[in-house]
Amino acid sequence: MVDRILGRGPKAAGPAPEAAPAPTAADQKAEVWARVQLARNLRRPRTLELLAAMADEVIELHGDRLFGDDEAIVAGFARIGSHRVAVVGQQKGADTEENIRRSFGMPHPEGYRKAMRVMELAERSGLPVVTFVDVPGAHPGPESEERGIAEAIARSVGLMTRLRTPIVTVITGEGGSGGALAIAVGDVVLALENAVYSVISPEGCASILWRTTDEASTAAAAMRMTAAEQQALGVVDHVIPEPDGGAHTDHEETGRRLKAAIVRELDRLAAIPIDLLVDQRYRRYRSLGAYTEVVTEGPAPVAPPRGGLADRLRGLIEAGSRAIPAPLQVGRRDEPPAREDV
Amino acid sequence: MPVKFPDFRPRRDTFPEKLWTRCPSCSEQLFNKALEKSLRVCPSCGHHFRVSSAERLAHLLDPGTFEERDPGLSSQDPLGFVDQKPYPDRLAAARLATGLTDAAVWGFGLIEDHRVAILVMDFGFMGGSMGAVVGEKVARAAEGALAARVPLVIVSASGGARMQEGTLALMQLAKTMAALERLRAAGVPYVSVMSDPTTGGVFASYAAMGDVNLAEPNALIGFAGARVGAGTIGQELPPGFQRAEFLFRHGFVDRVVARADLRRELAALLRYLAPGAAEAGRG
Question: I need a surface site. Which of A121, A266, B142, B244 has the fewest CB within 10 A?
Fold first, then answer.
């Protein structure tokens, strides 16, 4: 019970060291927050830096053919190892001037429409797609809404669920909500060790649920947004270790490690027939999420269970703690779940 | 550790039910029974109040034709999420307050004799937020519509993805879009109706992607919450920003439809989108 309130279920995610004394909630919060800061580090390698370290050739393509060219997303072709691939990724700036040009890495709709154009081109050309995700969130301004940021994200997510070519996704830094997912639907999802992935920024979560952004680190811990925790939830498949001190200390080494993982996945996915691959991808996303199902005949039972309030709550709480291991089982790439309703 | 259970005593039983509602738009005092009769639209200014999923189904479907599917789905707490109170407590409170198991209800029914798969969201259940259950029901509604080859109608009312389920809630965007892409590929029509509010992850997935998009007048529809947007960008927002008419002006909504006309409009559209469905409904 206490464990559950502290958000540390016995089977909860995370590589808890066995010999060391159990980490307190405060320690854990600090550790998660340190990773969020690493994921946001200004010198962290972005898509172009990673490609420079791991690709023999990069040809960038520009423009969405509808409105303009959004430099918060880069897209084009690259040769990684023996693979010619299409690449799509977010690109934050290294300094203020570049950040203004690249909207601080927050894409407008035209960025996602450029991504979709290149992904569809990859499908027609028989090229696998590799995406690099590092975004605080899609651009939230009025011009972004006017040009349909929600439509662009929805369409891109939909396209990726059915694209008839292998997709390898890497969360390299901040995986910020829908702006991240729009280019992060893949056959395999990798994450760098200090990358984070969340449904809303910790600041946004804190301002809504705690009514103050001061609790951002608490929200970050509660959302279990680190790469290791995301792997435990089945959202991320493999975590790639970073050089000591973080990816920003050694771009070359980070790129080398990432390249090995990407090439391995591209080799593996290339051997899977495309119909099976697309079907597996469908089932991967179809099975994510934790719920229970009571199959009833006839109309829905609205009557609450018998017993006092305490009994009912205890029942709910037990259902909640039973829930913890279940989702941890799903999402293993190599063997798609036999049942969809996990 | 002592646990303080929240007080869920149903207050309705101890206090007389409110008889009057003040319209937030024109400040008119409205008699509740009259408000119900006008489909919860203010008779003097046309303000559309939010409606529950049950009221919405009653407004749209032919009486007595709704067959609910998958009522037994309920969310778990995969993250062990605790903010001001634990997520399971929030769920329990929402269940007791609404009598629903989660923020969406789906099933089959008839709209002027057209058989449809219909999913309606309920803002009263944790802000209509989309967690695993809402995502699953949307996916099953799309799959159900595909299997029965009847049109899909979704009425959205949601603040977005449910934060308490973390990235698993975010993944519902992919789950729902994957199912809708299959529906689209099979040529089965889908009409999206956006009511107040339709924001965040729900707008950025199935709500924006109808073959035809309808919206109720003045409904708040947008991706980034106004607070988030203004706070991050520090920019002034244009008047009427993120309202149904704003979306209409910018080409993301086909028609802004008053609630009283919604059922008739849907039926008229279905006669073009799925001419065969009326016969199927009678059968």
Answer: A121
Residue contact A235–B168, C-beta within 8 A: yes
Domain of B32, in residue numbers: 19-49
Pair B150, B197 in one domain: yes
Å between B44 CA and nearest CA of chain A:
31
Q: What is the CATH number of the domain that holds B150?
A: 3.90.226.10
Check: CB of residue A157 under 8 Å from CB of residue A120.
no
d(CA A158, CA A291) in angstroms, rounded, equals 23
On the question of pLDDT at A338 being above 70, the answer is no
Phi, psi of A56 (to 5 degrees): -80, -25
**pTM given for the model:** 0.85
Find the helix packing angle between B87-98 and A309-323, rounded to 10°: 130
Chain B environment of A302 (Cβ under 8 Å):
99
Q: Are residues B171 and B268 in the same domain?
A: yes
Please give the average per-residue pLDDT across A239-249, as a whole number: 94
A163: left (phi > 0), else alpha (psi -120 to 50), else beta?
beta
The domain that contains A116 carries what CATH number?
A: 3.90.226.10
Q: Under an 8 A CB cutoff, do B135 and A149 touch?
A: no
Contact at CB, A9 and B80, closer than 8 angstroms: yes
What interface predicted TM-score (ipTM) does this complex get?
0.90
Based on the fold, state whether residues B192 and B247 are members of the same structural domain.
Answer: yes
- Structure confidence at residue A2 (pLDDT): 42
B237/A142 touch (CB, cutoff 8 Å), yes or no? yes
> Is B9 inside a domain boundary?
no
- A15 within some domain: no
Tens digit of pLDDT for each residue in B43-88? 989 999 999 999 999 999 999 999 999 999 999 999 999 988 899 9
